[in-house]
Design a protein that fits this description.
The chain is of the alpha/beta class. The protein folds into two domains: 269 residues, Aldehyde Dehydrogenase, Chain A, domain 1 (3-Layer(aba) Sandwich), CATH 3.40.605.10; 179 residues, 3-Layer(aba) Sandwich (Aldehyde Dehydrogenase, Chain A, domain 2), CATH 3.40.309. Helices cover 39% and strands 21% of the residues. The chain is built from 15 helices and 21 strands. It has a seven-stranded mixed beta sheet, with helices on both faces. A six-stranded mixed beta sheet has the order 8-7-6-9-10-20, with helices on both faces. Strand 7, helix 6 and strand 8 form a beta-alpha-beta unit. Helix 2 packs across helix 6 and helix 4 packs parallel to helix 5. The longest helix has 23 residues.
């Protein structure tokens, strides 16, 4: 079992935590954890780097570092996939896609900063601005603190830390408690690629109070958080004056299936979007509002395919659904499902735990609209199917929750698609695609209680920069 030390020159004791595989509970590694002394040193170091503007990393330096990092990641592709699957529980086939996306994400960051530019501000159009020109240039915003989630242990780090490095910001990252190894390894890849270690400090922290102290320190210019709404909003309320932030929480993603929906497109999309990573995705398909004329066929076909999904060890190449991150999450999901069934939902498939770590892919028909499975992000392999004759009523029910992230509509009619796009409360509406679709360059934003700010690598880089303006006055200017 490997042990990971903190990469810091701070002397003194560290804490230690053990990382366990969610599938079988086997210990994978031990990780040194940061103390108050490490946090203070990390913040002071990062602020000194930012204040020393003559020592800022140039765009060319950042591009070179990120290019080397992409090559190192490509060289270690197999290791990164296996490590991600083992510590996070996402099946190997999906972890492979995650690593591919992470590598491509760094390439996207390179493209973004290579084309980074400010803008020319119009001057001379009135007497007050005569004899002046003005323009802006991009500068890093300051010290970035990143707090990440377990469900995409490598790619989320690229979105947060990779974006900060690309933006030119010194960054301190607190990885998810359950999945710190991919984050630690990525930080070391950046260092091996030429990034001075103090520009990216990885500080695993077990103590909640210490983590809060890091986030809310006045030296933090930008806070990027991916995780639960309860924690994210609480931390935002405690940020120091002037600290900007981006929060990415979850949703209870709705899908509308009109009577003319192509089942050949709909069923595979629901299967993937609902059961991918055992439903542990912030935009996972959870609520499917289907016209009553097709709901029976949807239930029959989707349940049949869900029963065939291979559930088990995420490190095996043919596993399709892995474990939930902790045994208590299996117990919670099971409780919510049983409560829904007791209240009148019909369980078309699943509905039981397979082991302490795995839960059957489950499809519930017509659970009550006030059941927890209908109102709260389940973060488990459970899809709810509702029959509706009036799709406008379905839209109203879909919009009734205080969460708003990605949504989807399946129809062959353009007017229906446009109506759904206009009336669904969502930051993105997918047409004939599941709610969990994402590429790393597109804007990714939770609205209402689902988050704050805009993610997606180019957008995150933009959030972590300022546009600094210069106004030049000269009598030689027309």
């Amino acid at each position: 079992m490997q042990h990971y030390e903190l990469q810091t020159n701070v002397s003194g004791e560290t804490g230690t935590m053990t990382v366990y595989a969610p599938f079988d509970g086997a210990p994978i590694a031990t990780v040194a954890t940061a103390t108050a002394q490490h946090i203070e040193h990390g913040l002071a170091t990062a602020l000194d780097l930012y204040r020393n503007k003559s020592g800022w990393l140039t765009v060319h330096q950042r591009v070179t570092i990120l290019e080397r990092a992409t090559q190192l990641m490509a060289d270690e592709h197999e290791f990164l996939v296996t490590q991600s699957a083992q510590e996070g529980g996402k099946p190997w086939m999906d972890s492979k896609v995650e690593v591919d996306r992470a590598i491509d994400g760094l390439k996207l960051a390179i493209e973004t900063i290579r084309h980074d530019h400010g803008e020319v501000i119009p001057m001379g159009g009135d007497a007050y601005s005569a004899n002046r020109v003005a323009f802006t240039q991009k500068e890093p915003i300051g010290v970035v603190v990143a707090v990440s989630a377990f469900n995409h242990p490598l790619n989320l780090i690229v979105h947060q830390v990779g974006a900060a490095v690309a933006a030119g910001c010194p960054v301190i990252v607190k990885p998810a408690h359950d999945t710190p190894l991919s984050c630690i390894h990525f930080a070391r890849i950046l260092h091996r690629a030429g990034l001075p270690p103090e520009w990216c400090q990885c500080l695993p922290i077990e103590d909640v109070e210490l983590a809060g102290r890091l986030v809310t320190d006045e030296r933090v210019a930008f806070f990027t958080f991916i995780g639960s709404a309860q924690v994210g909003w609480m931390l935002r309320s405690k940020l120091a004056p002037g600290t900007r932030c981006a929060l990415e929480h979850g949703g209870v993603a709705p899908v509308l299936a009109y009577a003319d929906a192509s089942l050949d497109k709909l069923i595979p999309a629901l299967l993937k979007g609902g059961y991918y990573h055992a439903g542990q995705v912030c935009v996972s398909v959870q609520r499917v509002f289907a016209h009553s004329s097709i709901v029976g066929e949807i239930g029959t076909q989707l349940a049949a395919l869900a029963r065939q999904l291979k559930v088990g060890d995420p490190t095996l190449r043919d596993t399709e659904v892995g474990p939930l991150i902790r045994p208590e999450e299996v117990q919670r999901v099971d409780q919510w499902v049983r409560e829904a069934v007791a209240a009148g939902a019909e369980c078309l498939c699943g509905g039981e735990a397979i082991s302490e770590s795995c839960y059957q892919p489950t499809l519930l028909l017509n659970p009550p609209v006030d059941a927890q499975v209908s109102t709260t992000e389940i973060f488990g392999p459970v899809v709810c199917l509702y029959a509706y004759d009036d799709m406008q009523q379905a839209i109203q029910i879909a919009n009734a929750l205080p969460f708003s992230f990605q949504a989807a509509v399946f129809t062959q009619d353009m007017d229906s698609a446009m109506h759904a796009y206009r009336h669904l409360n969502a930051s993105a509406v997918m047409v004939n695609e599941h709610t969990a679709f994402r590429i790393d360059g597109m804007p990714f934003a939770g609205l209402n209680q689902s988050g704050h700010g805009v993610g997606g690598i180019p957008h995150s880089i933009h959030e972590m920069q300022i546009e600094k303006m210069m106004v030049i006055k000269s009598s030689s200017l027309a």
